[in-house]
Amino acid sequence: MPYIEWRTTYEVGFKLIDDQHVKLITIMNELYDAQHRGTGQMIVTKSLLELVDYTVYNFSTEEKLFTQYEYPKKIQHMKEHQEFVDKINDLKAEAGKGNLLLSIKTMEYLKDWTINHILGTDKEFGEFVRERELG
Ligand SMILES: [Fe+2]
Known about the structure:
Blueprint: H1 15-36, H2 41-68, H3 74-96, H4 104-134
């Protein structure tokens, strides 16, 4: 069983975003596996860099949509993104110094933040778009 299992309840109803979230969870599972199997720092670091890059990519996709749909909670949502980006960039910096320690606690943080963000903040945006499109 993967570390995080994708569930249909995670869907925000916006295909582009949902597809990216599936990929994000896949990368997170790979990171967990790399760490868990006790693979070398290089593999764990590579996986972490992929997670940072893809997270930034996913956030920028969402943020473009906020502008496109004139989403009123854009600033608030972007602030949440920034906090998470700061956190994973700290991990990236540690990895760069060769002393990355991905504890269970850190993995749980990454997982919980992502799932909670999808279920709360991202779904809220999905609902906003749906309501707007229904007119
Ligand atoms: Fe988001």
